Every structure is written in C-alpha cells, then in structure tokens.
C-alpha cells in the first residue's frame, strides 16, 4: 500500500490510477452556471465530475446516539455529462455500504453492482457503482462508523446541560464522505433534501431551511434549494433551542448558553445589512448561528443558513465577534463563489478575511479593524518565514501538479486578505467595492480557480483603470512566495501605546497601571502578550500574572498566546490551568500552540501526553488527529496520514 502524506509531499500514485489533465478551464465568461463546466483535477477526491454529476441529493437518515451512527440512504439525481459514462464513482470513508439500487427506464428500482475499494488515506475508499443504464436516480443504503472523521458524538456529560447527547458534523475539508457517500469535491454543486429521525426530545438542524418554530418530535425535514458543494453539508442534533436576533437571524444553542450567545451576537443583523450594502443581497434566506460545545475543532464553519460557531468567542464584550463577520462573509466568498478545489483556498478564506475586516470596520470602527489586521499580519510575517516557497504562495500556476492541501494556513487567510487590501488601496474603494460586488454576481453559485480570478480582474479592474496595477503584480501576489514589496502597511496608534508600555516594563520600569489597561480590549491584550520575548524569567511571568491574572483567563485568544510563553519559560505555576484549558477546549487554533510548545521538552511532552489521554474521549477526531501528530513527531514516530 502506498503511504500518502498530507502536506507538502506530492501525492503521486496515491489518489488515482490515471490523473486527468490539470485542466484550468472554469466556466467561460458569460456562460450560465447551469451548463456543466469542464472538470478540474482535484486530488482530494475520486469523483469524476467530467463524466457524471450529482445534481440533487435526497437523504433519509436515522440518528442513533447509542451506536454513534447515522444510517439510511442517499438518493442522487444525476446528470450524465459524458455520453459514454456508465460508472458513478463516489468518495466514502469508513462507511458500510449495504445496498445500491438504480431507477430503471420503467420506473422500477433494481440492484446495481458496486465495488468498495480498500481505504487509501487520506482519501478514503473509492466506491464505484456500475450503472449500465445510466440511471437518472441511484440510491445507496449505508451506515456510518462510530469514528467517522466528520462527526463528533458527545455523551450528555460532555454537554452544557448534561441531559441529552449531542452530535455534529464538520465536513470541510474532506470529511463529508465519512457521513454521506458523495462526490466530495467543490466543483460539484447539488441541492438537497433530508428526512432525519432522532430520539424525540432531540432537535436536529442542518445547513438548510431550519424552522425556528419546528416542533421537537424526532422527525425532521429539510430542504436546501440552492446548489452547494459537499463541504457545506452539515447536521447537528442535541438539546437545542432558538433565540431570535432579527427577523431573519438568530441563535441555536443549548438552553444554558442561548441568552449569552444571542447577546454576544446581537449585531448580526447589522452585519448582514452592511455586507449587503457593499456586496449585494444576502441570497440564502435566513442566517442563523449554532453554538456548539467547546470541543468544536474550529472557530466557525460557514455552513449555509446556519454557521457553526465555537462557544470560545462568547466572552461577554463582543470583542471576538469578527468570527461571526467571517462566517457571514462566506455567504458571498466561498458559499456563493467557491474555490474549485481546496488548492485555491485563498478564494474562500482570503476574500472572506478581507470582507470580514470590512464588516468589522463598518460596525466597530477603523481602529478595531486595523488592530485585527495588524495581529493577523504579524502572525503571517512570522509564520511564512518557516514555510516552503510553495506553501508561501496563494496558489500554484496552472499546469503544475499540486499537493493535497486539506487544511489551509494563514497564507490563504491573511496573505489573501492582504492582496485584496492592496487592490483596494491602489484602485480606491469607489472602484474596488463595485468590482468585488460584480465578481460575486458574475460567478454566483460557481466554482472558480485562481487563474479565473486573475483573468476577471484583468478585464474588469486592470483594463478599465489602467496604470494602477500591473499584471505582473497580480501574478506575483498569487503565484510567488513571500509578501510583495507593494503590500500596504497598517498602523495602529493603540498598538503603538501597547508597545511603549511593554517596552517600558521590559526595560525595568513599571507595568502599565490598571487605569490604563482597563481601557484595553482583547486585541490590545493579545498584542501585549505577543510582543513579549521568546521566554521570560519565571518571576517576571509571576509579576504579569499577579497584575493581570493571565493564567486561567476565560479569553481563549489570550490563553492561546500566554500559555505557550509560560511553557517556553518553564513557568510551572500555570500547568494546572494549562491542563484544564487543553482539556476543556477542542478548538485547534487555540490549543495547538500550547501543545507545540509543550512537546519541545521531555517534561512538557509528558504533560502533553497526560492531558491528551484525559482529553481524548472528549476531543473531536480532527483535534485528536492534530494532537496525535504533534506528539508522534516529537517522539520521532512516523505518522500515517491525517485527513483534515
Ligand atoms: N471554513 C473555515 C474553517 C475550515 C477551513 C475548516 C479549512 C476546514 C478546513 C472557517 O470559515 C474559518 O475560517 N474558521 C476560522 C475562523 C477565523 C479565521 C475567524 C477558524 O476556525 O479559526
Ligand atoms: Zn473561513
């Protein structure tokens, strides 16, 4: 068996027997999305969208908490694009396939032959269905495995209320295949319906038309009439109640959490309105948020109509709601105009991070938006130095074989956003804002690649406003490593004041008085801690702790920076709180820096292993995979592929 590594390693011989050409043709200019675009090579998927495409998915699923299992069927309505094609190839991971049937011309359903190949990490098992009659509808009956990588099953004890179990999905990047057999590539979009049954007192929600007034009876129906890529397929079930924020927006959460959450996210309607003003109407009907248990491995996930949100941003002062701006922004960048394969991740995450910052600026002012930009760019500057040239670029040129990139990095987010700020600065908002709005309209409900963005920008920005940006500059931003010299800088007087205060203390002076720091926001605290030296003497950390009580902070953004500093400095005082934090929170971005710091010394590694063994049962498979990999690497063990 070939061992496939996620990351920089190429995937030769891993994904497919014969790779189709690395075709860069997206939908040609002006062609309606309805005509099937040319297939792109996506090495994250076995699907063959050049041959046949899922147009609609009808799910019928039962949620079984005891077995940690979804079981039922998926019925596909198919568009047989290639007149010669007689096979439907689907992505699956750890699924048990029970039966496959196809609808015959006479309307009767008959068994179809199929082959489920051995699993090939990280892709999973290729399911090949023989469909000699090119059935318009095919149905797969299946069940999931308890360890499905895209699902987390929580016992009642692992929830806020402690009464009912909880289950949620996380399909991005390539985890949808672990709970539904499908063409798991964003170049295929489908509408869906679902009939889901569950224990009676459990509420089920999906990335679809959730009815805030739905009766809780264990029998739920959903419809998503807009075509979405597979990574946006989502489901959650638990003791969930709804609290409205506006006519079209509200929060779903466990009862104990829902009021705090709706207060924290009270500005959501305003966020929708400012984004609409900038980039055109919100096209998805309702925009609700689902607050998940702290084990959710991400900050947020832009599941359409129902963003999934970590509870770690609920800190009482709205200081971390740029996360909501981010997930909402995906309703334009990502969900409407989608990367054609994950190798063009910046088209989702970079454009979204730019839009997020525009929303933050409109609602909370330029000072806050600039502080958030500065934090992101400082981290990017630091992180990018250690990356390979390929990892430093937003995308690779058409024709070059890409590696599997299932996770993205700050390059896609922050270099991508920086690139858009560069365009904004050169053209001015008067020109750039309508351009971006036109871009969202033009490619709505389509998948595109980086070259398509470049071509569209050349025609609609560069050619129409000559002399501002050259084609070479565009290409440098997208295809070259590093941060171009043309990158605009951001300044933050409030951060300058923080720098001055920190430096005064490091030079032997007093710590800034609480009369000063009382006015500091999360962003200023983050900047204060981030600017500290690699390590500090233990008594200096104790002084900081005494003044500001960093250890044990309820703010994960601060914890994420303070604990690694504590670990690097050998400040054992913090160990108990570190263990508590790492056990309670599963959001990778918040906890991985501390694990990374811990595994660098033998004592730290021992603590990391102990914490992981206590936390494992409560962690999401995606988080467990990341922590396992870091520990194994520190111990010099080889790891097999991790699929996130
Ligand atoms: N779509 C991403 C989450 C994601 C990306 C999951 C790649 C799997 C693979 C989501 O919109 C996101 O970016 N979340 C961030 C939020 C932050 C940048 C505000 C996160 O989880 O930290
Ligand atoms: Zn995002």
Automatic annotation (TrEMBL):
Family membership: Belongs to the peptidase M1 family.
UniProt entry tagged with the keyword Transmembrane helix: no
Stated name of the protein: Aminopeptidase N
Cofactor(s) this protein cannot do without: Zn(2+)
Pfam families: Leuk-A4-hydro_C, Peptidase_M1, Peptidase_M1_N
InterPro entries to which the protein is assigned, alphabetical: Aminopeptidase_N-like_N, Aminopeptidase_N-like_N_sf, ARM-type_fold, LTA4H_cat, M1_LTA-4_hydro/amino_C_sf, M1_LTA4H, Peptidase_M1, Peptidase_M1_C
Source superkingdom: Bacteria
